[in-house]
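Technical note accompanying the year-one report. For the benefit of new consortium partners, we illustrate the data format agreed upon in the data management plan: each record pairs a sequence with a structure-token string. No post-processing was applied to the example shown here.
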Amino acid sequence: MLNKPVLVESLIVFVIVLFVHAVVWDRYSWCAVALAVQAFYVQFKWDRLLQLGGAVFQFRAAANSGLLPASMVIPLLGIVMKERCKSAGIVYFERFGIVVASTGMLVALFLSVIAVGITKPVPTNTCILTGVAGSIIIYTMKHSLAVSEVIEVLEVLLIFVYLSMILLYLLPRCFTPGEALLVLGGISFVLNQLIKRSLNVIEGRGDPIDFFLLVAVVGVILLGLFFTVLFIFMDSGTWISSMFFHMMTAVLGLGVIMPWLYRLIQRNPLFWLLQFLFQTQTRVYLLAYWTFLAASACGIVFYQNAKRSSESKKHQASTITRKYFHFIVVATYVPGLIYDRQLLYVAAVLCLAVFIFLEYIRYFRIKPFGQTLRHLLSLFLDERDSGPLILTHIYLLLGMSLPVWLFPRSCAPKGTLSGAGALVPYSGVLAVGVGDTIASVFGSTMGEIKWPGTKKTFEGTMTAVFAQIIAVALILIFDSSVNLNSNYAWILASVSLVSLLEAYTTQIDNLLLPLYLQIMLM
């Protein structure tokens, strides 16, 4: 039997799926319902495999598989994007939304088939259910997608299969099956989009900041794969290896990534970036302010490590201490969302690339900073950092940035969506920056009534909902572009459901919660 937290988590996800289905009510939303039903049953098989140690790869311990909540994110994002762009009359992005939804469903089905295939004895009922759901989805895709779109979906699936085999082998215990689906599925889609756009470059077509995101993400991932293979054959901790690392980073950056970006944006990437960053006085002020906040975050890291005495080497930072970084991130993103979202978009991409590059330096022990980073960051580890990589800070950045990156700008003629959709770029700020932070702080200090089967408290969840409602009111006051059109009941329902999901999920909430809040608000 599934335990109570998993059942409640699944129930919350089902409610969100049904909310979207009730609003959209087309063949794609019916497919989402079918996918959710089969993912619920297959999730039980994955959980059993993890408990018995029968999974093919080593997944993160102390968490359930998370297959259901992860399986629904990409399909639901595609469906709500399709609806928004359809109402705006943007056919290209309406079709793009359909491709996103179809890709998410097919990748989730593939992971389900893997679980069913390696379960012994073969679960007959689950096989039948997976077959029925798969038939419905494939039949709908057959009558909805053009041949080129079917090829695109299959390309993403192929990339996902190979990427999963490589990264899950190289990075044991870093992901649950659901997190692997979400992260590797997203990377696979980004890589396919970059290849597709690189082969079909039309001068003046496309936004340079979108190309910048695609090239930066794919570039740092390929850089990591290259050095992972390389350091199998040589010791990464020596000065010679470290010098080779820095030299090859420069060669790959200047010789591959920069020309790739030049081909896409048709101008010098460095000159374009500098011109973009310092284009207006507002941007200069924001960059100076963000630099101060980055220095403050570094100061917290150094101060907390200085407090760690030689007698307490096993001392770990408290929950409240780790939430300092959430407050700093909120202080970073809110001014960017209000005054210059394009600058925030590009700055978040740069920050992600820097975070991943620093993690490479820490992981490979690259001199002169690798060992220092290992020592400094070890203080902030929690149970979710059980693998060789430290990913929680990267997930925090992703959770705050994804609503900004995934915001359908082309389907919002005035730069913002109507109604509750106007809050979409703030999804990360509300769900993680405000809700998750307040729930953790108040729950750990004043919470007494625990939700059944979890360590989270009722007081923490209620305080999180209340805090997010106050945050929405403040956004209405300070951001004149937000007009909710009296959609307050839907906003309250969205915030409440996501806060309840935070209380029951064992997945990386920094990544999952903003995406579900974005789906609900869109």
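Partners are asked to follow this layout when depositing records. The chain is about 75% helix and 0% strand.
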